[in-house]
Each structure stands twice: as structure tokens, then as C-alpha cells.
Amino acid sequence: MNIKPIRSEADYQEALERLEVIFDAKKGTSESDEADILGLLIDEYEKKHYPIEAPDPIEAIKIRMEEMQIRQVDLIAEIGGKSRVSEILNRKRKLTVEMIRNLATRLNLSAGLLIKDYPLTKR
């Protein structure tokens, strides 16, 4: 096992290639330990060099709706009338604090995520 820090793109590619070779190593072996450590190093490098931005509030709501198989009409109680739900999801109107509280509870989303600013579409 020859593990070293990932400091460059070349180191990163080398680590990915090695992980691919030892990925299915039997638990308890030195190759399995190496795969675990490489996985952690790769993860840290990717977080620093290839960050994934959190979705904006509307995208987060749509993603969670899909995951929970919820339709627009199912959010009337949290947002308001049917047209209000449509306006929010089509970015015609901003979420209010009350809507954010309701959606955070119903969709199990962070209020911090839902309160982020997002652009409206032009009418």
C-alpha cells in the first residue's frame, strides 16, 4: 500500500485509477483498507476542486416533490391556492416566510435552503 496526499489533477487521476482496480477488494484485506483511505482522499479532493452547489429553493422543492411523488395540487395547503403554487414553482412569485416554514416541514427541507434568494422569471 503506497498512499500519498492528492495534490494535483495527476495525483487525483492516479488515485481514481487505483481505486477502480481495488474497489471490490475483500473486506479486512490491505487492499480493502487502501480503498477506504483512497475513497476519503478522493472525496476531500473533489469537495475542494469540484464543489457541487446546492440547488436553489425552487429546484430543491421540485426535486423533493419528485422524490416524494407529490404533485403541485398537493402543496396547496402549504403555499396557498392552486394558482399560487403554480406561480411559485414557475418563478413568478417569491416564497414568503410562512410558505418556507410550511414547506420545510412538509418536504423535510432545510429552511436555510429555502430562504436563499433566487431569480424570478419575467412576466
UniProtKB/TrEMBL annotation:
The family database entries (InterPro entries) matched by this protein are listed as: Antitox_HigA, Cro/C1-type_HTH, Lambda_DNA-bd_dom_sf
Q: Which residues form a coiled coil?
A: none
Source organism superkingdom: Bacteria
- Spell out the Gene3D superfamilies in the cross-references: lambda repressor-like DNA-binding domains
Q: Where is the HTH cro/C1-type domain?
A: 61-114
The record's PANTHER family line, in alphabetical order, gives: ANTITOXIN HIGA
Q: What is this protein called?
A: Transcriptional regulator
Species the sequence originates in:
Shiella aurantiaca
Record lineage: Bacteria, Pseudomonadati, Bacteroidota, Cytophagia, Cytophagales
